[in-house]
Design goal:
Blueprint: H1 12-45, H2 50-99, H3 102-108, H4 110-152, H5 154-176, H6 179-201, H7 203-208, H8 212-264, H9 270-312, E1 334-341, E2 351-358, E3 363-368, H10 374-381, E4 389-394, E5 397-398, H11 404-409, E6 411-414, E7 423-424, H12 425-430, H13 438-447, H14 451-456, E8 464-465, H15 474-486, E9 492-496, H16 504-517, E10 522-526, H17 530-533, E11 538-543, E12 546-551, H18 553-559, H19 561-570, H20 573-576
Parallel strand pairs: 3-10, 3-11, 6-9, 9-10
Antiparallel strand pairs: 1-2, 1-4, 4-5, 7-8, 11-12
Helix pairs in contact: 1-2, 1-4, 1-9, 2-4, 4-5, 4-6, 4-9, 5-8, 5-9, 6-8, 6-9, 8-9, 13-15, 18-19
The structure holds adenosine-5'-triphosphate.
Membrane topology: Multi-pass membrane protein
Keywords: ATP-binding, Cell membrane, Membrane, Nucleotide-binding, Transmembrane, Transmembrane helix, Transport
InterPro entries: AAA+_ATPase (IPR003593), ABC1_TM_dom (IPR011527), ABC1_TM_sf (IPR036640), ABC_transporter-like_ATP-bd (IPR003439), ABC_transporter-like_CS (IPR017871), P-loop_NTPase (IPR027417), Type_1_exporter (IPR039421)
Length: about 575
């Protein structure tokens, strides 16, 4: 958690302001009983007169108002500082997470990342507000209270210290029981988020398979678990309050008892005794505040560590220190040189010894069985992961030697699972090119065979797309995701099984228009259907992460057994001939 303190640097002025205001607030609080004792001892018992009482009363009022102003100011500044601190941390967490490779996402988990960016940071915020206000107030009130009390009666102060020490130990013992509980809270919030996320994103599958009841139980379990812990904490805290109140009252009784005797013996004034009781209460309250702070500490500390973990996790893929730029005349090419890749923790490589080249004006198709490594190969071109050995060159430069921005600017990518974002159709397409003109957007949509259905939507290109694109069909989502890629007019186009949800006629029209549009570009298409890829310039056949053959359809039909098998399983005798 301490690592996060550096975020407080920009709030040094405000923190100093809080400390000054808290200092003034404490002075006011410590001064009040003293004035009151003077009113009683000198004004009433000493017969100093009404004027004196009114004067002291006025002073008391002034001190009270001043104290209140300081309290409000301190609360305001502390809240602002904590909110600003959390805004900065949240901003940095978000920025840092953006640099994550898919590995880091897998390691922390999306649900936990959401909890850490929201709930954990809020925990820190709440703790910080309390900490800023209490860190000075608690010791100052405790020590100041003792000094002031000692000024009234030294002997009685020892009685006070003794009782308070015993009470403090009792309170700490009770609070100590909540430490582990508070610590476990964040993990339980994580669990709830995970279950909730899965339920919401998978709602269709859950309903279709009548899994509502099962999911409800899963959520109830997570919910009950969190609630149970929260109740246990509250129960302990609830027990603490009466214990403290009892302690305070006992303290008052003992102080009145001992102090009463001293008043009778004329060793102490009545007003001083009253002030003494108030100091006792103030010290007790200060210790209570310190205890509350300590109780919250494990939870805030756990939250802080979880945030630090996110910030401390170094993305495995970074930009080079001296990035290279491909030569200006490069028109888009992709080359794999003996590339081997394995997912972290996997025993076997997913891709082994892959070599091929795809240049401008060429269409390279990749075909292979499920799980043969087709998508992984495209992921490597985009540098979502780094190859274990070998080189991947884009426009003649190793992808590790150029910035990811430079690399990805050259590429238009259509993922296997079409993802749309909340916004208009036009905004979704423009994600491929921020400054795309209406004409470019319309053209991209037209090539992607999306114009027809977009124009039928209410509002056309300004029609709303719901989060995740749930208000359009799978095929429509795919076409919009293709349009988003095409609007970039990139030199390298990667299509990961991107035509799978299209009917045969739409796919044929799309391919025809696409061929014209990408005439001079490099196109790499991952496909499952032989009919869709058989006209490619090169077909790369992947079998269990290895290249089983490269060539044209005819060449592969003659020389590649794996390809022949795929073809035989899909095409009729006539089509094969
Ligand atoms: N993030 C990941 N972590 C670990 N292993 C993975 C990961 N993604 C994929 N794999 C594994 O790598 C192998 C290749 O996966 P990939 O998605 O590249 O196959 P594919 O040929 O595109 O399959 P499909 O045709 O079903 O889309 C599979 O065995 C898969 O289980």
């Amino acid at each position: 958690m301490t690592k996060l303190f550096r975020y407080l640097k920009s709030y040094v002025g405000a923190i100093a302001g809080v400390l000054v205001l808290v200092f003034l607030q404490c002075l006011a609080q410590l001064y009040m009983p003293d004035i009151m004792s003077r009113i009683v001892d000198e004004g009433i018992a000493g017969g100093a007169g009404t004027n004196y009482i009114i004067k002291q009363g006025g002073l008391m009022l002034l001190v009270a108002v001043g104290g209140s102003v300081a309290t409000i100011g301190a609360a305001f500044l502390a809240s602002r500082t904590a909110a600003g601190f959390c805004k900065d941390v949240r901003h940095d967490v978000f920025e840092h997470v953006e640099k994550y490779t898919l590995n880091e996402f897998d390691q922390i988990g999306t649900a936990s990342l959401v909890t850490r960016t929201t709930n954990d940071i809020t925990q820190m915020q709440q703790f910080l507000v309390m900490f800023l206000r209490m860190m000075l107030m608690a010791p100052m009130m405790a020590v100041g209270g003792i000094i002031m009390a000692a000024g009234k009666d030294g002997q009685l102060t020892w009685v006070l210290i003794g009782i308070i020490a015993v009470l403090f130990i009792i309170v700490m013992l009770i609070a100590g029981r909540t430490f582990p509980l508070f610590k476990s809270m964040q993990k339980k919030v994580d669990r709830i988020n995970l279950v909730l996320r899965e339920k919401l994103t998978g709602i269709r599958v859950i309903r279709a398979f009548n899994k509502d009841e099962y999911e409800r139980k899963r959520f109830d379990e997570a919910n009950t678990d969190l609630t149970r812990t929260a109740i246990r904490i509250q129960r302990i805290m609830a027990a603490m309050m009466p214990a403290v109140m009892f302690g305070m009252n006992m303290l008052a009784v003992v102080v009145v008892w001992v102090g009463g005797h001293r008043v009778v013996n004329m060793d102490l004034g009545v007003g001083d005794l009253m002030a003494f009781i108030q100091y006792g209460m103030q010290i007790m309250m200060a210790l209570m505040m310190a205890t509350m702070l300590f109780v919250q500490l494990p939870r805030a500390s756990a939250a802080g560590s979880r945030i630090s973990e996110v910030l401390g996790m170094k993305p495995e893929i970074n930009d080079p220190e001296l990035p290279q730029k491909p030569a200006e005349d490069q028109r888009g090419s992709v080359e794999f040189r003996d590339v081997t890749f394995r997912y972290p923790g996997a025993e076997e490589p997913t891709l082994e010894h892959i070599s091929f080249r795809s240049g401008p004006g060429e269409v390279t198709a990749i075909i292979g069985g499920t799980g043969s490594g087709k998508s992984t190969l495209l992921n490597l071109i985009l540098r979502f992961y780094d190859a274990e050995s070998g080189e991947i060159l884009v426009d003649g430069v190793n992808v590790k030697d150029m910035t990811r921005q430079e690399l990805r600017d050259r590429i238009a990518y259509v993922p296997q699972k079409a993802v749309l974002f909340a916004g208009t159709v036009s905004e979704n397409i423009c994600q491929g090119k921020q400054d795309a003109t209406d004409e470019e957007v319309h053209k991209a949509a037209s090539i992607a065979q999306a114009s027809g259905f977009v124009e039928e939507m209410e509002g056309g290109f300004e029609a709303r797309i719901e989060q995740g694109g749930t208000n359009v069909s799978g095929g429509q989502r795919q076409r919009l995701s293709i349009a988003r890629a095409l609007v970039r007019k990139a030199k390298i186009n990667l299509f990961d099984d991107s035509f799978s949800a299209l009917d045969f006629k739409t796919e044929a029209s799309l391919r025809r228009d696409l061929a014209k549009e990408t005439e001079d570009a490099t196109v790499i298409i991952v496909g499952q259907r032989v009919a869709s890829i058989m006209n490619a310039d090169h077909i790369l056949v992947l079998d269990d992460g290895r290249i089983a053959g490269i060539g044209t359809h005819q060449e592969l039909m003659q020389g590649c057994e794996v390809y022949r098998e795929i073809v035989a399983s899909q095409l009729s005798e006539e089509e094969i001939a």
